[in-house]
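Per reviewer request, we include the raw input and output of the structure prediction for the construct analysed in the revised manuscript.
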Amino acid sequence: MQPPLTSTPIAADSLPWMPLAPGIATKPLRFAGEERTQLLKVDPGTSVGLHAHSGFVHAYTISGARRLDGDVVAGPGSYVFEPNGNRDCWECAGEEPVVLFIHMTGALVSLGEGGSETGRTTTESLRASYLAWCQAEGLEPVALGAIR
């Protein structure tokens, strides 16, 4: 049964990580229209390739650090805002995974050489992947808004 959408704590620390790509995993927490809230973990030596956003991103570093587009390092306690249309790439910096709390809207569009689109993740596509993963793993979906 889906919990109510307000005032419902989710024990995020006890949830398993859902793999997204090698070295990248998520814990979806909430789906609502075009918005999503999630934890994202990126392992040492792993990069998040060039991508663009069709909405905004609020990202707060819980642990570890990430190197943004060059030499800027966002460590624990740092907050990064990415506006609609932002293009970026980044990597885990250091010997421990970086864990981010992310709230975002719109699509994350993966970009290849020359800026061509190679993939797209929306709130709805992530929700569908999450539900399929939960079913395959025999898990009860706990992310708010996962089940309508």
